[in-house]
Please model this.
Amino acid sequence: MKVVSIVGARPQFIKAAPVSKALRTAGHQDFIVHTGQHYDYGMSQVFFEELSIPQPDVNLSVGSGDHGWQTGQMLIGIEKVLIAEKPDWVLVYGDTNSTLAGALAAVKLHIPLAHVEAGLRSYNRKMPEEHNRVLTDHCADLLFCPTQIAVDNLAKEGITRGVHLVGDTMYDAVLQFGEIARQRSTILCDLGIQPKGYLLATVHRQSNTDNPENLRNLLAAFAEIKEPIIFPVHPRTRQKIAELDLYNPKSETCAEPGRSIRNPRFIEPVGYLDMLMLERSARMILTDSGGIQKEAYWLGVPCITLRDETEWVETVQTGWNVLAGADIERILQSVRSVTLPIIRPAIYGDGHAALHCISLFTR
Model:
């Protein structure tokens, strides 16, 4: 069996790593197409190296751009690859422009389509990711759902054929690489920080980066928090901070006397192993990333989500995640009052989601 896997963004590399390994172990061909949606070393190549993903067979090198242009360029490139390679299946991941472009190319060429992480819904149609999810799910022949809620979401839209509850391939990755991260990562030493002695923050969603008020509020909230905050900065976020002149590198210390570390402490994006260690060792995580919400849950770290909704509602229902949006007072109150729940139910599968996906290709 020949599968063309479409990836392009940092979370997709993580989701794809266990699936690519399972495909190759089962003797199938995994032909990897990298759209180039993420292209910096710290956002792309390092993940292929750390997760032992084969180098892409094709890199479209599309790069950054407006949604329509970027998706269109990807669609043109992916279509050419599919015509040339004639795969048995096209496999897409998540909810990015790369996902949608791969789905549209496959369905227009009548090639069966499989979607890893199907059925997620934030029910916020202002999110470009929400449109990508919905459209991809309605194109797909196999829909690999990470949770029962995802299965139920699809049923509400009349999608029941080809739907399978398999678990979350990102959970597979955490289990496969968690101990490796513990052994190899030196990020805590490199940054001079102690376990549970800092908070970890990430911001990359368009609703936050492209909304000046939201971005200002988030940085203002971070500045009010007394504990050190480590902030690996997404390239788009860094650009927006610079455009709005929200950070003055000449004033790196907090205003409060006696504090020698600025809040937040900006660092470059880090690889997967270092990120796992930063997440595992943080006292708390503040993020607008869907993947990091789940990783926080699996690692037993309380999470504050910098959005007003989440597609990963299970993390909120179990008490491990709090929705604070970009509201300064809600964020500060959440940081002050968050408590650790007693239990973390196993709601994202058995850690073998990739194997379950592969078995369904050959039924």
Observations:
- The two ends are 12 Å apart (CA to CA).
- DSSP finds 16 helices and 13 strands in the chain.
- The chain has a mean pLDDT of 91.
- The chain has two domains: 2-168+349-361, 177-337.
